[in-house]
């Protein structure tokens, strides 16, 4: 890891010892190295400044940092005006005047993470005065890909719900928003080129869609928080809603010799399909700047293809026999090629890898199935492909018990393999599928359980191996989320100083 | 003598209890021509009324012209605050808070509009200033026609239920105008006790959350808020007589408590919606938090021959305990107007009692031997006498009955344990012994699982046990319970709704209403209606509402 960020609080002058070490050191996720002492410095909302350090590669004018300064100032001093530098005793305490932000690398994202840690170190004493302990942190993420999937097709999520989720992701240092934007039930993405897709495929053509402006807003909101937006346009399965606005895209299913009137996956034997997909993906890559694009490829139901005489004729012509996985591979191969031509790295669900054993294109494989998921990780890395692990983090499944520890105890690299193989595991992802989730219950179902996965993906595994040690920190962090307006549910009995104020 | 009075009073209640387990009607829905209608024709009604007659004839409602009026001859008038408040509430629900007349078109000539809903309270005493009770009459009859719709109910309580039904009949047409079809409804609840339990001890629930859920309860025709207000973890109830209980026993003595004004507000807010508030002060177990503010109330536990510094259940052998309980429950009986108080009595852990030499000595004196359930009975017995002397009836969890405590016949036994076979056997035993009972076992909604678990809640029926008709008449209803170990303001409402709606229909509608796919169609609509009314009720499955939840 070359891109390390040092966050040091350099305090000039005297310091006064105030009591012992704070009970809970609540930086979540746990930094790689943290040294703190009982020395306390008070912070005054009136005097405190963020400054670019002399050695920093970035000066003001960097809008990601400038905006982050504003945001974190409010997070640190929630009662703006910050009159909290109480009279009692405060005069005796040295004041931390500014935080120097160093830029050791060009990576802005890490710097934002540093601000997050800083904001989590600031506490309020009994008199309401803000203080911070003398602390040195050296920190970097264990995995570069720390994702969270939202599904906006099973249920439409209002923009506000997505933006709130991005805020909470930043607090947990998650850095990829995987936007599973379309699926069978609805197509809310408003395409410039194919407006009929959402006009006829969304739940409602005006109220239940994402306009281009909405999408830009999500991307910008994410960018300012160091979060990538990975769009998924899942095909050839999971595409029922596409068919409403794009005639002849889907395969007509047959009953006997006649079309049954229902449709199956995308029709892989028509040239028009690939023209459409190339146009759509061209638009998508111009809208979503990330270098990755998610192409789906999961859970293709072959029964419709099997029923269709044209497909059968095509299979014969191509020499696929009756192996429909070959047909799917043929389709995915074409789609991955389109994405490669558009200069994008493709991400696919593991099904694509499992079906296609020779001449695999260079895609990233997202492992999602249950069972021995590490066996699959091992197979994929053995084939030299990168892996994103999602299987153990399907948070839409509420456990019978409250089970954050289950997400915490995951060991993503605990498989037999070479160092090279392990390096191919680029990270993991929390998935919140939408069958039973919409804006009414999304936040409490995500948080703080997703935080457990966030720490696993960011922090050192040895340092964070104990559930018992994590519990009080996570409890504390959950209260911090509440205070910041994130509707995070409780881990167990207890209370927060500031309870959730909505209903 | 006071106890005798209570006995007579509740004996009368017993006779008046709704014969809930004996089917009255077959629950089918007919149109005016006698055709059986598909249930999906009543998309929006939840819980399904006992009898509905509907037709395709539709009328408009105009926000600028429509009025709620007191019918001539009604025993309630404009001084009836329950109705006046309800009129305002339902006006907002019906016209979507815009209060603008969206329909400028005036679709066609006269005769197509409902101009008013006349509300007629038919019995001499409307009970406008009263509190709802176990015997409150909640029946009503609704007839929607032009130019006037008429809602008739013997008491305001039925009128409240009828107003909810009326508001559920109103739908928006493609132009955004409000419409209602010609309809006749005749309705009454199957069970008299239809409750929701919230736990404000494991987590403190801000007042706003409690009020919002009372609002949602009214939308589902619930009529009991069972307030499990204190437990081991915290004691948020501010007692006038024993202020130290919350001062020292709550999570925070100012921000995490319910002041007398708060409690009053909850009770009044509930009364306005025809909902009773039954407070539960659970003893002798589940009382750790009481110990901080009331010295010597809890039993000191021993390790060997010396006190370990920890405490167990309420100490049942001291007179001071009973003096305290007498004072405390006297206060409770004046603060909470409902005729019942829930005394808990569940899950008493005997290990601390066993360790304490004074308790052992007392056991010997009393001849209890090693049977600590006898000691529990001894405590409960005295507590029941204390509560009886305040003129209250009481509910207890089933253990009190199971442990053979001698109970008065007016005690309500709350069944919560076991699997299906076990709770059905328990219902049979309790009613076999002649006690009235209510069921919660299948409705512990704090238990969650993947998928549509509302169906299990919907399928359960309190009368599914082997017993005589007389026994089944002793079933007064049930309660959905949302225990608070993992629930606070952040997740309470979506976890409760619409799953508690499933229980609501089981407790209100006819026994024969059990078609799960029909229920699904109606419940999807009903949950969207709750969302539109500001309640973050979670989705049943994939799909959408026209107006999604916007409170993020």
UniProtKB/TrEMBL annotation, chain A:
Domain of life: Eukaryota
Active site annotation, chain numbering: 299 (proton donor)
Keywords: Disulfide bond, Glycoprotein, Glycosidase, Hydrolase, Signal, Zymogen
GO CC annotation terms, alphabetical: lysosome; membrane
Catalytic activity, EC: 3.2.1.52
Record-level GO BP terms: carbohydrate metabolic process; ganglioside catabolic process; glycosaminoglycan metabolic process
Molecular function via GO: beta-N-acetylhexosaminidase activity
Keyword Hydrolase included in the entry's annotation: yes
Signal peptide start and end residues: 1-26
All copies of domain Glycoside hydrolase family 20 catalytic, residue ranges: 143-460
Cystine crosslinks: 62-99, 253-304, 479-496
Pfam families per UniProt: Glyco_hydro_20
Function: Hydrolyzes the non-reducing end N-acetyl-D-hexosamine and/or sulfated N-acetyl-D-hexosamine of glycoconjugates, such as the oligosaccharide moieties from proteins and neutral glycolipids, or from certain mucopolysaccharides. The isozyme S is as active as the isozyme A on the anionic bis-sulfated glycans, the chondroitin-6-sulfate trisaccharide (C6S-3), and the dermatan sulfate pentasaccharide, and the sulfated glycosphingolipid SM2. The isozyme B does not hydrolyze each of these substrates, however hydrolyzes efficiently neutral oligosaccharide.
Family of this protein: Belongs to the glycosyl hydrolase 20 family.
Subunit structure: There are 3 beta-hexosaminidase isozymes: isozyme A (hexosaminidase A) is a heterodimer composed of one subunit alpha and one subunit beta (chain A and B); isozyme B (hexosaminidase B) is a homodimer of two beta subunits (two chains A and B); isozyme S (hexosaminidase S) is a homodimer of two alpha subunits. The composition of the dimer (isozyme A versus isozyme S) has a significant effect on the substrate specificity of the alpha subunit active site.
Name of this chain's protein: Beta-hexosaminidase
């Amino acid at each position: 890891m070359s891109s390390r960020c040092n966050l040091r609080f350099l305090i000039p002058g005297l310091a006064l010892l105030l009591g012992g070490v704070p009970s809970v050191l609540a930086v979540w996720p746990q930094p790689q190295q943290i040294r703190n002492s009982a020395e306390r410095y008070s912070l005054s909302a009136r005097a405190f400044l963020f400054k670019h350090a002399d050695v920093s590669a970035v000066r003001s004018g960097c809008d990601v940092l400038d905006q982050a300064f504003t945001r974190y100032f409010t997070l640190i001093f929630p009662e703006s005006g910050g009159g909290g530098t109480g009279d009692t005793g405060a005069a005796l305490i040295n004041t931390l005047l500014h935080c120097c932000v160093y830029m050791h690398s060009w990576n802005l994202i890490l710097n934002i993470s540093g601000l997050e840690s800083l904001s989590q170190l600031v506490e309020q004493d009994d008199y309401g005065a803000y203080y911070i302990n003398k602390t040195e942190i050296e920190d970097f993420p264990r995995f570069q890909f720390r994702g969270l999937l939202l599904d906006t097709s099973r249920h439409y999520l209002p923009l506000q719900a997505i933006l709130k989720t991005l805020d909470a992701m930043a607090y947990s240092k998650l850095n990829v928003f995987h936007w599973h934007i379309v699926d069978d039930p609805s197509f809310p993405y408003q395409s410039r080129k194919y407006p009929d897709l959402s006009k006829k495929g969304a739940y409602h053509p005006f109220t239940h869609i994402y306009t281009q402006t909405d999408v830009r807003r999500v991307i910008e909101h994410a960018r300012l928080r160091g979060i990538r937006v990975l769009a998924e346009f899942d095909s050839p399965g999971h595409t029922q809603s596409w068919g409403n606005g794009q005639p002849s895209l889907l395969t007509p299913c047959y009953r006997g010799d006649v079309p049954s009137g229902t449709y199956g996956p995308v029709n892989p034997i028509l040239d028009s399909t690939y023209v459409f997909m190339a146009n759509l993906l061209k638009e998508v890559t111009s809208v979503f700047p990330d270098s990755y694009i998610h192409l789906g490829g999961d859970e293709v139901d072959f029964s419709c293809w099997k029923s269709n005489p044209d497909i059968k004729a095509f299979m014969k012509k191509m020499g696929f026999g009756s192996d429909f996985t070959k047909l799917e591979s043929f389709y995915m191969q074409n789609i991955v090629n389109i994405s490669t031509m558009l200069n994008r790295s493709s991400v696919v669900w593991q099904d694509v890898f499992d079906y296609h054993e020779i001449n695999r294109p260079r895609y990233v494989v997202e492992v999602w199935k249950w069972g021995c998921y590490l066996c699959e990780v091992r197979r994929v890395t053995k084939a030299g492909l990168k892996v994103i692990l999602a299987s153990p983090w399907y948070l839409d499944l509420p456990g019978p018990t409250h089970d954050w520890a289950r997400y915490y105890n995951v060991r993503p690299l605990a498989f037999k393999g070479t160092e090279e193989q392990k390096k191919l595991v680029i990270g993991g992802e929390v998935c919140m599928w939408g069958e039973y989730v919409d804006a009414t219950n999304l936040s409490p179902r995500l948080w703080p359980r997703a935080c457990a996965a966030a720490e696993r993906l960011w922090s050192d595994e040895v340092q964070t191996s104990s559930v018992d040690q994590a519990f009080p920190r996570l409890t504390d962090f959950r209260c911090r989320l509440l205070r910041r307006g994130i509707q995070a549910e409780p881990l167990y009995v207890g209370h927060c100083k500031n309870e959730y104020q909505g209903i | 003598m006071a106890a005798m009075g209570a006995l007579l009073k509740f004996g009368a209640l017993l006779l008046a209890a709704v014969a809930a387990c004996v089917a009255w009607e077959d629950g089918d829905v007919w149109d005016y021509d006698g055709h059986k209608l598909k249930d999906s024709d009543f998309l929006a009604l939840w819980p399904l009324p006992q009898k509905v007659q509907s037709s395709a004839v539709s009328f408009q409602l105009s926000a600028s012209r429509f009025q709620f009026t007191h019918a001539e001859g009604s025993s309630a008038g404009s001084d009836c605050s329950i109705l006046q408040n309800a009129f305002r509430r339902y006006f907002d629900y019906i016209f979507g808070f815009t209060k603008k007349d969206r329909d400028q078109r005036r679709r066609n000539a006269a005769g197509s509009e409902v101009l008013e809903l006349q509300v007629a309270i038919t019995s001499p005493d409307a009970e406008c200033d009263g509190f709802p009770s176990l015997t409150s009459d909640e029946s009503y009859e609704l007839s929607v026609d032009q130019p006037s719709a008429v809602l008739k109910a013997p008491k305001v309580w039925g009128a409240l239920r009828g107003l909810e039904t009326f508001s559920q009949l109103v739908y928006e047409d493609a132009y955004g105008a409000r419409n209602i079809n010609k309809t006749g409804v005749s309705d009454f609840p199957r069970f008299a006790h239809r409750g929701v339990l919230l736990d404000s001890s494991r987590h403190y629930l801000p007042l706003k959350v409690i009020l919002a859920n009372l609002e949602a309860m009214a939308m589902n025709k619930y009529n009991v808020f069972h307030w499990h207000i204190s437990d081991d973890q915290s004691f948020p109830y501010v007692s006038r007589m024993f202020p130290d209980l919350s001062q020292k026993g709550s999570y925070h003595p100012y921000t995490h408590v319910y002041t007398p004004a708060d409690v009053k507000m909850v009770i009044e807010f509930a009364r306005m919606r025809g909902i009773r508030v039954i407070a539960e002060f659970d003893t002798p177990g589940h009382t750790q938090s009481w110990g901080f503010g009331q010295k010597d109330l809890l039993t000191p536990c021993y390790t060997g021959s010396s006190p370990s510094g920890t405490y167990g259940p309420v100490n049942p052998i001291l007179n001071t305990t009973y003096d305290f309980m007498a004072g405390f429950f006297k206060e409770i009986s004046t603060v909470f107007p409902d005729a019942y108080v829930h005394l808990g009595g569940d899950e008493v852990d005997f290990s601390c009692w066993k360790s304490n030499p004074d308790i052992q000595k007392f056991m010997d004196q009393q001849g209890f031997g090693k049977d600590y359930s006898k000691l529990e009975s001894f405590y409960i017995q005295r507590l029941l006498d204390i509560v009886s002397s305040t003129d209250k009836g009481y509910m207890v969890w089933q253990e009190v009955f199971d442990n053979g405590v001698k109970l008065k016949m007016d005690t309500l036994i709350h069944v919560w344990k076991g699997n299906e076979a076990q709770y059905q056997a328990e219902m049979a035993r309790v009613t076999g012994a002649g006690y009235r009972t209510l069921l919660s076992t299948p409705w512990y909604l704090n238990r969650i699982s993947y998928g549509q678990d509302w169906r299990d809640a919907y399928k359960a029926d309190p009368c599914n046990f082997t017993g005589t008709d007389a026994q089944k008449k002793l079933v007064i209803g049930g309660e959905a319970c949302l225990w608070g170990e993992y629930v606070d303001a952040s997740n309470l409402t979506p976890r409760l709704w619409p799953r508690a709606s499933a229980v609501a229909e089981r407790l209100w509608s006819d026994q024969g209403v059990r078609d799960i796919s029909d229920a699904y169609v109606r419940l999807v609509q009903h949950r969207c209606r709750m969302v539109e009314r500001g309640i973050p009720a979670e989705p049943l499955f994939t799909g959408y509402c026209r107006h999604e939840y916007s409170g993020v």
